[in-house]
Design goal:
Blueprint: E1 2-3, E2 6-7, E3 15-21, H1 36-49, E4 53-57, H2 70-87, E5 92-95, H3 99-108, E6 112-115, H4 125-132, E7 136-139, H5 150-168, E8 175-178, H6 187-195, E9 208-209, H7 215-221, H8 229-241, E10 246-249, H9 252-266, H10 284-293
Parallel strand pairs: 3-4, 3-10, 4-5, 5-6, 6-7, 7-8, 9-10
Antiparallel strand pairs: 1-2
């Protein structure tokens, strides 16, 4: 899949979508990045730490969030999209479920639309995405967690989303699916969505997993959002093992490291040079293994 000017190998890699919330009320980092200088420094840091995409959102979607008018959301996200596009060479995602916001964001340089309502909130959004020819991430969501049987119901909901996309003319190779951890689900549903993530492959699309600092981790570990990094990392490892193409995270450095380690251990990325290092005869790894185990090949 091509996003922006970059090709993504979605069958063999797990990529990082770094979060840039330009909101005053995000559950985890509200207000930290809603000035240009701070946001620019944060984007630079995320890129250095291994981010592959920057996801920019202007409306908090925490439980009980306040719905923003399109004009206000546009005024929040467009200047930051323009700033990132001007200063950095990295694909940009816009986190919105509104057609007008998506249209303005795409015009400003966004390369992907990340929709938490799977095209079911604003009927105009599917057409905006289709007309742009840009990729989209479509998330599972419900207003109430009224499932008869959770996983089959979630898959059926996502099929409805895919039907909307097809009817609007969004190409199959432009679609990423997200199980929607933390949205329209009970605590138990969220655990099941993570644990059975591989079942989404039945639908035939790349998967994005977004669990970063979410309540399912906080409830499990009895920790505030600021202390949920380790819990997030466990879910990221699950994502790699279950074939997620992307993880959407706040803590890029830590997630990059666990992805790198997991991919090397599982053989998904056996070529160490792809990470910027090469195991040679004189490398510490090779010397250590040779001395302790007699390993030489």
């Amino acid at each position: 899949m091509k996003i922006g000017n970059r090709e993504f190998d979605l069958k063999n890699r797990t990529y990082i979508m770094g979060i840039l919330n330009v909101t005053p009320d995000s559950f985890s980092d509200g207000g930290r990045w809603n000035d240009f200088d701070a946001a620019k420094r944060h984007v630079e840091e995320m890129i250095k730490d291994g981010a592959d995409i920057i996801d920019i959102g202007g409306e908090s979607t925490r439980p009980g969030y306040t719905l923003l008018a399109e004009e206000e959301e546009i005024s929040r996200v467009v200047p930051y999209i323009e700033m990132v596009k001007k200063n950095f060479d990295i694909p940009i995602s816009v986190d919105t479920y509104k057609g007008g916001v998506a249209k303005a964001a795409l015009a400003a340089g966004a390369d992907l639309v990340n929709d938490i309502w799977g095209l079911k909130w604003d009927a105009a959004l599917a057409g905006v995405i289709a007309k742009s020819g840009k990729p989209c991430c479509l998330m599972h969501n419900r207003k109430e967690p009224d499932y008869k049987e959770f996983m089959p119901d979630m898959l059926e909901d996502l099929r409805e989303t895919l039907n909307i996309a097809a009817a609007a003319g969004i190409a199959d190779d432009k679609i990423i699916l997200d199980p929607g951890v933390g949205f329209g689900k009970t605590y138990e549903n969220n655990l099941e969505a993570i644990n059975r993530l591989e079942e989404l492959h039945k639908l035939g699309y790349p998967i994005l997993l977004g669990t970063s600092r979410k309540s399912v981790i906080g409830l499990t570990l009895d920790l505030p959002a600021s202390e949920r990094v380790e819990g997030t990392l466990v879910t990221t490892v699950f994502g790699v093992l279950k074939g997620a193409a992307f993880v959407r995270v706040h803590d890029v450095k830590e997630n990059f490291r666990v992805i790198k380690m997991t991919e090397v251990l599982t053989g998904k990325r056996g070529n160490s040079s792809a990470y910027g290092f090469t195991i040679t005869e004189s490398s510490p790894f090779k010397v250590c293994c040779s001395q302790r185990t007699g390993f030489s090949g």
